[in-house]
Amino acid sequence: MGASQTRTEHKYQDLADKTGFSLEQIENLHKRFQQLSNNEETINREHLDSIPSLANNPIRKQIIEAFFDKRNQHQDEVGSCEEIGFEQFLMVMSHFRPPSLKTTEEEKEAMRKEKLRFLFNMHDTDNDGTITLVEYRKVVEELLSKSGDIGQEAAKAIADAAMLEVASTNVPHMDPDDFYEGITFEHFEQILKGLEMETRMYIRFLDVETPTLRCGKSTS
């Protein structure tokens, strides 16, 4: 029993070093993983699709797919998995970890870039390093169609106009006949330059109590 607990703590410490989560946070996330997987060693898309708080999220599919995207699991690979284990799950969850009181400015900037990369990957569905008009249009259409007040053609027109605006901003000297290949990660960073990302991406959609996962000292 003692040896087993020691091995578990050692494993958790290794995961803590990789992700920045505390041992307590990892333990709580492991409990949530077991709930989602019905105590199995892996989870699949159906497990995440059953989460009630994700049901009405307009980008539910993109969020779920992000968990199975190898790029988000700190792997030097591309492609997707059919199932993921707890360590892969935790690696993806680390993108949602907020900064602590001890986080340095350099670390905050690294976390921001990691979060932006995660969001970029959600849109770059074919892993080619560029968000194309087709990919961007699909996301915008899904977001707008959920309102019920905008038809598909109107959503398509809005997406096209938005992409044209992005093109004119990032490549201001384009000729009328030039083709804009799409948004690179560098363009994506510029678009969201003024948006505070460090605490905006959180994990409430997994029904995990946010206070339990907060990094740093409690202010209460």
Automatic annotation (TrEMBL):
Subcellular location: Cell projection, Lamellipodium; Cell projection, Ruffle membrane; Cytoplasm; Membrane
One matching Pfam family: EF-hand_6
Gene Ontology terms describing biological process: cell differentiation
GO cellular component terms, A-Z: cytoplasm; lamellipodium; nucleus; ruffle membrane
SUPFAM superfamilies in UniProt: EF-hand
Keywords: Calcium, Cell membrane, Cell projection, Cytoplasm, Differentiation, Lipoprotein, Membrane, Metal-binding, Myristate, Nucleus, Protein kinase inhibitor
The keyword Membrane appears for this protein: yes
Annotated membrane topology: Lipid-anchor
Chief place of localization: other
GO molecular function, one term: protein kinase inhibitor activity
Chain segments annotated as coiled-coil in the UniProt record: none
PROSITE patterns in UniProt: EF_HAND_1, EF_HAND_2
EF-hand domain residues: 111-146
Similarity remark: Belongs to the calcineurin regulatory subunit family. CHP subfamily.
The protein, known as: Calcineurin B homologous protein 3
Species of provenance: Sander lucioperca
Lineage: Eukaryota, Metazoa, Chordata, Craniata, Vertebrata
